[in-house]
Design goal:
Length: 288
């Protein structure tokens, strides 16, 4: 699933190629991607037609196009969503779901989604921040992200640090890949409870999460297959720089121990059993 760096790459592309244009027509080719919009497919299209795109914004893994009437086109890429800027007349992609005609010369915006877990809808009055995602926390790359507040909240919790990194109400944008990479860099096991990490350790984890996502952003994000691409259809290259995620059985680049994979929240976690030792279980009180 695209995480913060991948969605930010898409946002930057939309800012470059779509902001300043007017949506002249919308074709919803499959109703599922707009299923969350109460207007239905026709209402979704009507709500966007004729409006100018003023800005491209993001909160965590959500992005939105701010419109001239104060509304917003809010989107989430899900597992395989793509926002592509294509020349008019370019053959349709196999999984093209929504087409946005623009007043820009020979250019249109397309939403392509093979698995259709992603979606788009119009957020009324959501140009600055859609109410539908107001509960989502800021992300580590946001200039207004409060490091001290995050560290304090995370250290009060007994849940494992990886689970906390994936909690979008605590810190947004960090997904499975970058959580594993940040924890490997910090030498902390994902099951280590927040209240058993020192302030310095928690600050270190946060710093590595920020660093690894910034590094991914510089090379266009992480692409394991053709499902994630930027608005021009290009893949990212950060998968070549991964130290833990997806490297089961390969030697740890620090100590040489084989990287392990375990099940985690219907996903997988990758870690070094030497550099990131499994935390001891808490002792339970016994009756005297």
């Amino acid at each position: 699933m695209p995480e913060l760096p991948e969605v930010e790459v898409v946002r930057v592309g939309l800012e470059r190629h779509v902001v300043g244009t007017t949506i002249t027509h919308v074709d919803v080719l499959h109703p599922r991607p707009v299923r969350r919009d109460p207007r239905g497919a026709d209402g979704f299209a009507a709500a966007l037609t004729g409006h100018r795109v003023e800005a491209a914004r993001r909160r965590g893994k959500y992005f939105w196009l701010a419109l001239d009437n104060g509304d917003a086109l809010l989107g989430h890429l899900g597992m395989s969503g793509q926002m592509l800027v294509q020349p008019v007349g370019q053959p349709d992609e196999k999984h093209l779901r929504v087409r946005f005609a623009l007043d820009a010369a020979n250019r249109e915006l397309r939403f392509v989604d093979q698995r259709m877990f992603g979606g788009l809808f119009v957020s009324t009055g959501g140009a600055e921040l859609p109410t539908e995602i107001a509960h989502i926390a800021r992300d580590p790359l946001d200039p207004e992200f409060d490091d001290d507040a995050f560290v304090a909240r995370a250290r009060r919790r007994t849940s494992g640090i990886k689970r906390q990194l994936l909690d979008q109400t605590l810190i947004s944008g960090v997904g499975n890949i970058y959580a594993d990479e940040a924890l490997w860099r910090a030498r902390v096991h994902g099951d280590r409870p927040g209240d058993r990490l020192t302030r310095a350790q928690m600050t270190d984890v946060l710093g590595h999460a920020r660093a690894v996502m910034s590094a991914a952003l510089e090379v266009g994000g992480t692409s394991f297959d053709a499902l994630y691409v930027n608005v021009n259809g290009e893949s990212g290259y950060f998968d070549r720089s991964l130290h833990a995620y997806g490297r089961e059985g390969e030697p740890c680049e620090r100590c040489g121990a084989p990287i392990r994979r375990i099940a985690f929240m219907n996903r997988s976690s990758y870690f070094c059993p030497v550099c990131q030792p499994v935390p001891r279980r808490r002792r339970t009180a016994t009756a005297s």
